[in-house]
Amino acid sequence: MRRALAPDPAGQLASQLAALACQSLLDEARLAPKPGLVDSRGNGAHSDLNLELMCRSARALQPAFFAMANAAWRQTPSTTLREQLGSLGRSGEQAMLQASGGVNTHRGAIWAIGLLVAAAAMDASQLQAAAVCQRAAALARLPDRLLPAQPRKGELACQRYGVGGARGEAQQGFPHITRLALPALQASRARGDGEVNARLNALLAIMSRLDDTCLLSRGGMPGLTLVQAGAAKVLAAGGVATLPGRRRLYQLEKDMLAQRLSPGGAADLLAATLLLDRLPAMAAN
């Protein structure tokens, strides 16, 4: 007679979180029309990326998100956990690079979403966005002594332009998600804009305010200013569900493509927004 296997609550939760994280990345990649970004229409401002590559990369990261959530299950913030998550995240980067043929498809998303799935696993009874983001911030503020000394492209942009970047966003509790993206998503749904338009408005809300290091790396401060102002104009015109807003969106896209501008940091935060939007329903189940 076979003995029944003992339940594995940590593994079950980690599996759910990893699946949601992967789905959020896939949903962000496929969403269209996203100005400057890879989507279901084409490659945006990128010559080395396409939708198939983005989707393959997203799926390759699911085991890393599982490992991070599993490691953080019912833990409290500590340097040991922070360094373990950092190591798992860097292993995830290697899986990403292998899946993408060496192209950086989701490095920023690994950082943001990895922290969020870990924070969710720390206390599955508290999965509201504000609570998860505050736990993620506590982790992000801890040091990682194993962090490679060589600065990344985004970190160089932070140093040059004096902005917080992905690290600062996480250490502050993801304010561009909790104060901008999620409220824009919910307000658009309440207006009846439709899910695609609601997600696009959430992206534009992030773009309108985020000091996106991807934009700074490609276009400097003039490029960032162009995108922030253009995104704000789309929202001021009523958002992408309105004809004036859609016209401004296409003008913004035209201006961005002319300068090869891509808001990659905003895309990462949109994927994180979609993850946080889904977590309360998971808790209810």
TrEMBL record:
<comment type="function">
    <text>Involved in the formation of 2-(5''-phosphoribosyl)-3'-dephosphocoenzyme-A, the prosthetic group of the acyl-carrier protein of the malonate decarboxylase.</text>
</comment>
<dbReference type="InterPro" id="IPR017555">
    <property type="entry name" value="TriPribosyl-deP-CoA_syn"/>
</dbReference>
<dbReference type="InterPro" id="IPR002736">
    <property type="entry name" value="CitG"/>
</dbReference>
<keyword id="KW-0067">ATP-binding</keyword>
<dbReference type="GO" id="GO:0005524">
    <property type="term" value="F:ATP binding"/>
</dbReference>
<dbReference type="GO" id="GO:0051191">
    <property type="term" value="P:prosthetic group biosynthetic process"/>
</dbReference>
<keyword id="KW-0547">Nucleotide-binding</keyword>
<keyword id="KW-0808">Transferase</keyword>
<dbReference type="GO" id="GO:0046917">
    <property type="term" value="F:triphosphoribosyl-dephospho-CoA synthase activity"/>
</dbReference>
<dbReference type="Pfam" id="PF01874">
    <property type="entry name" value="CitG"/>
</dbReference>
<protein>
    <recommendedName>
        <fullName>Probable 2-(5''-triphosphoribosyl)-3'-dephosphocoenzyme-A synthase</fullName>
        <ecNumber>2.4.2.52</ecNumber>
    </recommendedName>
</protein>
<comment type="similarity">
    <text>Belongs to the CitG/MdcB family.</text>
</comment>
